[in-house]
Amino acid sequence: MFQTTIDHVGVEERAAKLGQRSIKAATKVQGIKLALSMIDLTTLEGKDSAGKVRAMCQKAKHPLPGNSEVPHVAAVCVYPNMITVAKQALAGTDINIAAVATGFPSGQYPLDIKLNDVRSAVNLGADEIDMVIDRGAFLSGHLSKVADEIALVKEACGAAHLKVILETAELETYDNIRKASWLSMEAGADFIKTSTGKLSQAATLPITLVMLEAIRDYWYETGKVIGMKPAGGIRTSKDAMKYLVLVKETLGDVWLTPHYFRFGASTLTNDLLMQLTKEMTGMYQSVDYFTVD
Question: What CATH number has the domain bearing residue 255?
């Protein structure tokens, strides 16, 4: 099935058409709240500190302090050495802790180090593992190596969910993106994810559509529901609504939940909050009104 050839023009035209859908005001408020509940609030910087992670976790719990109608986010995503800090800060909530592993963002680490990285993160308290595939091996045609690594990482995850990052900007073609999506799902991915967020070209509507259609076809063939996470470059509420339309039209309402769809886009959070405040009060708040991640 992953050998299907992608109609380059067709996928881009359909993504553009779906991205033009008009959304009414009441539906927009509902969509903004849904998008907020789907965010993986993320910090993956060399200068990350315990204080920064605690502040991010506070925002994850209460994106708009004083307004109980605004949902908390789905998860926070951190480097493994910040898992303990996040776990303490999020105690008593159902916000998940995601950790990047397996030599993020390159994926160019020996397998034993990758697996130890995963086991360590899970032992520290990670609920979800975001791994990255070896794009060099994939593009060189060593598909079994990539699949075997995903399967072994899935085993090392234990009860933790596995998100497999394709780093689509390096996969070169839509055909490769579909092939990598299918391979990842067959090997045990619970989610497939576009990007690490470390490259300038990350999530796009056409790329996401290709991956969503792979998820749909895999579901038709196996009955398994696999999640999707576009990450990188999604910055505005308007963008987020386009992605939600894409999900609804391609996969249906079952996937319109944080259990099966996430945004890896921390900078998106404040724009969603700004637009939500405007819809509820009729006035825009200054960007300074919201905390900076």
Answer: 3.20.20.70
- Is 121 strand, coil or helix? helix
**No. of helices (H) and no. of strands (E), the chain:** 11, 7
Catalytic hit among 154, 163, 179, 193: 193
Q: Is 217 helix (H, G, I), strand (E, B) or coil?
A: helix
Domain that holds residue 219: 8-289
Q: Looking at 229, 239, 242, 271, which residue is catalytic?
A: 229
Cβ proximity of 61 and 72 under 8 Å: yes
pLDDT per position as a tens digit, 234-256: 999 999 999 999 999 999 999 99
Q: What is the pLDDT of residues 176-190, one digit of tens each?
A: 999 999 999 999 999
Question: Is 59 annotated in the active site?
Answer: no
Residue 32 in any domain: the answer is: yes
Asked about 130 being catalytic, the answer comes back as: yes
- The active-site residue, picked from 117, 127, 130, 271, is 130
- pLDDT tens-digit map of 81-123: 999 999 999 999 999 999 999 999 999 999 999 999 999 999 9
Name the E strands within the chain: 40-42, 75-78, 96-100, 128-132, 161-165, 191-193, 227-229
